């Protein structure tokens, strides 16, 4: 099915070959201010002010800065300084004005972060190679899968939006910060590190099984078998009750260590999960990005067989996105699993 749909899409341009004509569009639209800002709780508010341009305006495409823009930031109705730190629950309003491009404004509420009430993991050994060379130390090559469950509280009366990030950690991170990266997970956050310490930990390939991770996939994409996604944003629309479990599985993880001197600190490996509570505007922008970059309709638009997709904006001019987020982090340490596996092997 996957091969067939690619053949169909690849063949579509040839069906219209010879039906092209270069035209110079007449667009009666003046450039307007564009505001972009991702406001993070506990951090200063940074705002990008640019202007729109038509695609035939090569000068505007190259330089769309606005030199005369004046920006004002309000928190809960009060004008604040540039060094103001956004707080959870703040209503932030950004106003900008330019003599050349006019005015623009946008407003967003900084979400209150949702805590992660518990984090559990279940590792499963797949392959194990072990060798004890006495004075040369222990060598281990372990492949395993691991299932993690994060539990969060839910308010059924509220519309809540999230984005989940995760990365790995190991002693190798401290030994060699310049190690090469090999990403193989949503958000491009998993790392394989190969420092001189002879400790190697790879976090595996991520599998997202919960239905709310793909709730933004439309019927058309699902029917055409175009529903695979590695995006990690979601809402609580499908949650039931006052508690929700989030399941994240990692397959074909690996841990290798050579000449181990039985120092347990070298087994300090695991995952760091960050749950971002995000504004609705941020969720809608992430949805638009998936629809335009990864959906089947986005592919059809790219080859010119459908009208361009309107971008999402919550700015008064219709250009740009002002979003907000707050976060909570939890760590899952697999040191005990590795230590038990080594100890059990030596018995």
Can you characterise this structure?
This protein is an alpha+beta fold and 347 residues long. The protein contains 7 helices and 15 strands. The chain has helices at residues 2-15, 58-62, 171-175, 219-223, 280-293, 296-302, 335-346, and strands at residues 33-40, 48-51, 70-75, 78-80, 91-98, 102-109, 118-132, 138-153, 161-169, 199-202, 205-208, 233-235, 243-260, 270-278, 322-333. The strands form 3 sheets. A 6-stranded mixed β-sheet has the order 2-1-15-14-9-12. Strands 7, 8, 10, 11 and 13 form a 5-stranded antiparallel β-sheet that branches. The longest helix is centred in the N-terminal third of the chain and has 14 residues, at 2-15.
Q: What are the SSEs and their pairings?
A:
Blueprint: H1 2-15, E1 33-40, E2 48-51, H2 58-62, E3 70-75, E4 78-80, E5 91-98, E6 102-109, E7 118-132, E8 138-153, E9 161-169, H3 171-175, E10 199-202, E11 205-208, H4 219-223, E12 233-235, E13 243-260, E14 270-278, H5 280-293, H6 296-302, E15 322-333, H7 335-346
Parallel strand pairs: 1-15
Antiparallel strand pairs: 1-2, 3-4, 3-5, 5-6, 7-8, 8-13, 9-12, 9-14, 10-13, 11-13, 14-15
